[in-house]
Design goal:
Blueprint: E1 2-6, H1 16-25, E2 31-34, H2 41-47, E3 52-54, H3 62-67, E4 71-76, E5 79-84, H4 93-98, E6 106-108, E7 116-120, E8 123-127, E9 141-147, E10 151-157
Parallel strand pairs: 1-2, 2-3, 5-6, 6-8
Antiparallel strand pairs: 1-9, 4-5, 7-8, 9-10
Length: 158
Amino acid sequence: MKIVVMSDTHLNRVTDEFKGICARYCNDADLIIHLGDWVSTSVLDHLSQYPLEAVAGNTDNHLIHDMLPAKKVIRADGRRLGIIHGWGSATGLRGRLHGEFSGVDAILFGHTHRPLQQQENGIFWFNPGSVFSGRATPERTLGILHVGERLESEIIPI
């Protein structure tokens, strides 16, 4: 199962560049996961043409928070994936996020704008970075998660 994971789009509208990114990476995906900080509901509307699971982020307005939960657990090819945006300082974030889920195989999160792929204590941690708005790094990225017998991931520079 191929899952495109993105976060922190921070777009006020759907741009031609975003449409191109979606056409390139989402058309052959089994699922798209967006981890919040959309900014505009138009981005959510655009991604809704694909099989989509999503959560709201800390900078999203009340319209997005009314449509999406702050966190959820989804099943993908027999795996339990916790999806959440994140909040506060990057320091200690994984500890805070770990407390939000139990019995998951992976925790997918955004917020830091920094890509991460790490197996630790039986949990696969995955942050796809930011599609458009890098903070500490100018690198713009999204992620691909392959779910099967194992969880495998890629960070894709844009």
